[in-house]
Every structure is written in structure tokens, then in C-alpha cells.
Amino acid sequence: MTTSDPKRRVKIKDMGDVITGVVLFGFALVLLFYLVPNYINEPPILQNPMMSPQWLPRIVGWLILLFSILLIFQGLLVSGPSEEDERMIEKGSPRRFFMMVVALVIYVALFESMGAVFCGILATLVLFVAHPVRTWWVYSMAFLFPIVVAFLFVEVMNVPLPMMPFWL
Amino acid sequence: MEIFSEVIQLFFSVENFLAIAVGVVIGVVVGSIPGLTATMAVALALPFTFSMQPIAAILLLVGIYKGGMYGGSITAILIRTPGSPASACTLLDGYPMAQQGHAKKALKAALYSSVIADFISNIALIFFAAYLAKIALNFGAPEFFWLICFSLTIIISLASGSMIKGLMAALLGILLSMVGLDDVFGSQRLTFGSYNLMDSISFIPLLIGLFAIPEIIEFYRKKAVPHIKAKASGAGLAFSELKRCMKSIVRGSLIGVVIGAIPGTGATAAAFISYSDARRRSPNKANFGKGEVEGVAAAEAGNNGVAGATMIPLLSLGIPGDVITAIILGAFMVHGLTPGPLMFQENLSLIYALFMGIMLSSVILLVVGNVAIKYFSLIADIPKPVLFPIVLMFCVYGAYAVNNDTFDVGLMLAFGVLGYIFNRAAIPAAPFLIGFILGPMFEDNLRRSLLIGSNDLSIFVRGPITWFFIALTVGSIALAFYRFLEERRKTQDKASKTS
Questions:
Q1: What span, in angstroms and rounded, lies between the C-alpha atoms of B8 and B128?
Q2: Between residues B443 and B483, the one the model is more confident about
């Protein structure tokens, strides 16, 4: 048997808002008391504090702090409109998501060393397999498109891209 | 006469014509594919414009914008999936028409009303931009400071969803814009010693990351859904039907122009206001929502009436009205141009050449739209699992091309993750981007005002123009609070009804 009165408990109306508010509150504290003093250099002589490079970041920091508190209160007290249920998604297989992450890592880690075309082919193949695409001829697109798009960038638009793997 | 010949020389080139045509085609194609938006297409096309002439580059992006606005309605009508948020209103009558076998009629009505609205909007742009720029020539730093304050507050107060989250997004955008070397003292701000960050955060990786990558992440995180095939069938739109819709189209276009000229309001609001206005006035009001062609025409007129008008604050004041014009502002900057009143003095021929291109884009939209209706099923049938890997490739190539550095690819992916978190937390990305763009202007005008006024704060209330913008800023904040309270009241009413 419990003695606590359930009516007296604060019922969170929108957990998403509370979490967002708490994260931003923490960020604002880090910004105001660590990042601004340590990573923004202030000149020794200032005619007006509003001219300081730290002034606007500080103002923004305090405003984020204030609005994050309001957001936490909003989450605690105000029910989110039903449209916000869009935030809920039906999650797919983790394998599919993991393979997308692999494709992103391929682009970031290998783009300069392996070249745009090679990375494009590899990442596109990984993403096709991730879904998976079951039409076999679609896989030829994974070879065709990176070559055509890289050609468009480099030869037609004169925008340079790393073309070949480093050992060639 | 001299200017006229300069304009002709600037505008009449194969590159410009090709840029508009290609832009409109890309816009219609991308807009008509659910999941891909005109914003995404404009962001992805930006790196392609580096080597182009400024006019051709801007016209390509404008073409994509206009094509995308129309393209969004195609899927709204055929498969009840709006290609863009602004097309959500079109499906109210468009989809029932498609179900009744009048898909082609609905598509034609959407096309003709889009083109007419676009044309009216362009005319408004040509007339009002120069006039507004002339007034803006009297602005000094304090006036611009308050104008930017007004733009920031109106964008937040009119943004959909929570006002607090809109404010938060704008503040984060302003904070991010401050990364790099300080303009006045040259001291480093939040660079963490990274050379890549000293020249501030690159605009294009941020843009691509924020608007293209979250869609890709969400697609691979969500459960796969079956691909829906679309078909445009039935008879076309008769002239008498178009004539019947004409009043609603013109009224919708004017609503679009007014709403588009105010920064931050956007096409979605214009489409819904135009639709409800048409329903209120129409003799067929009972048929609205059940497949009324006038409903489709009114929604599309409101939606497309915004396109030209959003360029008014951009060209005359240098203030982007929405996300796409913010990207177009980025394109101006990439090509060494700064939109604003001075541009009307220093680059008048370029402005007129742009106006000619923008007018031509309406004609091209008509031609491309007709072809798109005919061959649409081919475009719509590209499944997302095939499309998104290719879009990701464009994103990476585009981000890398900015500085030839993988740091930008990483930056783009980081912003992609941030954009995804924003989507999940229902934080709007548009105020973030506008904050990022207006942040440096805000600080620059604040500091210049202080320097001009010798640190005397009374410079910020120095004359009627500053008073006017202060009043507008206060008004927009009051509007934001009113909307906040109204939303709260509605939510409470709904909750009490449910309980």
C-alpha cells in the first residue's frame, strides 16, 4: 500500500520538450561559463563593453538559458499539440540504419584517399544493400552515377574532386 | 539607353536560357518526388554554380525554386503526398479529383494557376523591389540594426510550431555565425584552434547538411514503406473552368504576394489563406474538400504567388524572406555580390537582367509543367531506396567542392545529424538558417551604430525610421505571444474535450 498522493506528482506533459530544454540548459551553462571565457579572446582595452567579441555570444548564451528554462516548463505544464506526434517514427531494422552509418563513414574517411568515384560506388552499393534493392540491374546505377556525377563536377562545371585512389 | 543595351548584353546568352530551363526542369522533377524538396534541390545545386556567371547561377536557383513550388503539387494530387509543405493544401481537393478520375484536370488547374500567380508575383517584384530599395538608401546602421531585429522576430513569430523553439533555433543560428575571426578585433571566437573554422563556418555544408541529410537519415531509420505508383489520367482543364477559377487565382496570387513580401511567412500560410478565402467566396463552397477545381487553383495560386515576392526583401534590403531566398543570398555572396539597396545603384543592369530571367522562368514553367504532366509517372516511379544514395553522393560531392577539404564533408554530416535532431525535437530549421545569415549583419550594424554614435545608445532611436522598425519589432513580439497564448488555449480546450 502506498501513502503518496498520486495527484500531487508532477505529470510531464511533453517529455521531448523537457529533454530538449535540459540539453539546451546544459549547453547554455557550458557556453556561458566555459566556452565564452576560454575560447573568445577579449582585447585588453575596450571603449564600450558592447563592442567586445564576447558581448553577443554572452547575450545569446543568457537568452538560450532563459528559453531553455521556459521550454522545460512548457514540457512540464503544456501538452504538445497532436500534430507533434510526427516526432514519433516507426523504427526500421537496426541493420539498415547501421549500413547507412557505414556509408557515411566511407565518405568521410576514404573520400580523399580513395577518390570520389570509388567512394561513391562503394557507399551507393552499401546503401542499395541496406534497403535492400532487389532489382539486379539497379546495382549498375551504383557504378554509373558516381562516374557521371563526378564527370559533371570536374569536366563540365570545373569543380575539382579527388578522382583516383592515392596509389594510382 | 546605355543600361538597356547592357541588360540585353547580360541577359541574352545561351547560358542564361539554359540555366533557367534546366533549373525549372530540376525543380519540377525534384518537387514531384515525395521526400525531396525544392529547398534540398536548391542547396544541392549551389556548388554547381561556382564556375557559372552570376546571373546564370542565380537564375538556375530561381528556376529550381519555381519549378519545385509547382512540382510539389503533382504528388499531392496523384498520391496524396505533398512534395513540399506548401502543397499540403492542394491535396484537399486535388486528391479527391484524382480519385474521381480527373487527375489531369487537377494537374492542369494547378499548373495554370501556378503560372498566373508566378507572373503576378514577378510583376510585384519588379515594381516594389526598386521602390523599397530607394527608400532603403536612406537607412544607416541603426536603421538596418532594427530592420534585422524585426526580420528575426517576425520569422520566429510566424514560424510554425512552438515560439520558444523557433527563438531557440534562431539563437543557435546566430551563435554559430559568430564562429571564426572577429571582424573588428581579429580575435578568435569559438574556433578551438582549428584553421578550418577561422574563416567562419562554410555556408554550403551547413545548408546541405541541414536540409538534405536529415531526410536521408530518417529514411534509413524508419521502417520501409511500399512505393506507391502514380498515374495522371482523365480529361484536361476546359477554358470555361479556368475562367471560372480566375477570380480565385488572382485573389490567391495577391495574397501570396503580400504574404511573400513579409519575411518568414512562407508559401504554406499563403496557400491555406488563399484556399479558405476562395471557399468563403465561391458559389461552389459545398464542393470544397470533395474535389473542387477552384480549390486546387486557389491553393496553388497562393502557394506560387509567394515565389517572386519573397525576392522583394532579398533584393531591396538584403534580408532573406525564407529558407530558399536565404540560399539564393548565399549564391549572391559566393559570386561576390551583396543584395540590398546599393545593388540597385551599382549593379542595376544585373538586377534588370535578373528580372528578365525571372519573367522568362514563368513561361518555361508553363512548357515544362505540361510535359511533366504527360511523363510524370516515369519520374514519380523512381523509388527512394534508389534515389537517396544518389542524393547522398550529390551532398558529399557538393560539400567537398566548396574548399576541396573533407573537413567540409564532416561538417555537412555533423549538421545533418543536428538537422535530424531538430526534426525529432520539432525545432524548426528555418529560423536557425535565417539566424545564421542575419547574425553577422546584426552584430556588424550594432557595432557600426555604436561607432557612429560614439558609444551613445541614443543613436538607436535617432529618427522616424528607427521608431518605425522598433514599433514593428515590438508588434511582431506581441504577435508571437498572442500566437503562443492562442495555441495554449486551443490545446487546453482540446484536452478538456478529450477528458
A1: 22
A2: B443
